[in-house]
Amino acid sequence: MKNGELISELFRLPVRDIEEIAPGTALILAPHPDDESLGCGGFIAEAVARGRPPVVVIVSDGSGSHPASREWPEERLTQQREKEAREAARILGLPPERLYFLGLRDTAVPTEGQEFRSTVDRLAELALHYDCNTLLVPWRHDPHCDHEAVWLMGKVLKAMLPHLRLLAYPVWGLTLPSDGVLDQPFPAGWRLDIGAHLATKRHAVEAHESQRGLVIQDDPDGFVMPENLLEKIIQTYEIYLLS
To answer: Entry's InterPro entries (predicted)?
Structure first.
């Protein structure tokens, strides 16, 4: 199936209630500060409204988005992106004590070795501490190395804690070239209606100002959220795939 056909089918998946999609408390792994809002903003807001706020873990420090900026070296940019993520979480209603930052280097999140194992161990501790039943990770076909690494962490964590339901949420995968072909069968999953929280999700995404070209002015080639991503991601449904 070509990418364009697959993505169209994702937006036709059956709509289910959050209780059916993700029972219990969810542990959400976001590769970068902003993925939590882009991929799961509506989910977070709905879970909070149901009285069972998720635990959100930002895996990387987000320092790689504007490498040519002199005014915003990595340390300053990391602080800015954490500030933006905290504001986005506040907008979504997430209690601040349920937001964690692991601080791994942007574009270098490990896929093996000691740092990888210690990170998964830390995630397992959080899952057990909060009695999580569901684990949300990026879709394996998101075309970014950090997204792929965090998906792999989710697979290893699922093997450690088999009771977790593992779900994947697409972000960049929704912008794959339409004429490409993925080497997998059509995934099973559901859509979550987030219409009641759409304005809140948009507001949370807007809180990531450095990624919208509103803060850093001395790196003209730095990252700016593309309109084709925002058009795909800020809709009345979010997609969650069994992984």
So the answer is: GlcNAc_PI_deacetylase-related, LmbE-like_dom_sf
Cα(44)–Cα(52) distance, integer angstroms? 9
Q: At what angle do helices 198-206 and 74-92 cross, to 10 degrees?
A: 160
CB 150 within 8 A of CB 31: yes
Burial label, 195 (beta-carbon count in 10 A; 0-12, 13-18, 19+): exposed
CATH number at residue 194: 3.40.50.10320
How far apart are the C-alpha atoms of 205 and 195, rounded to whole Å? 15
- Could you read off the pLDDT of 211-228 as tens digits, one per residue? 999 999 999 999 999 999
Of the candidates 73, 60, 21, 67, the one whose C-alpha atom is nearest the C-alpha of residue 42 is 21
% of the chain with per-residue pLDDT over 90: 92
Q: Which domain holds residue 46?
A: 3-242
Flag whether the pTM goes above 0.90. yes
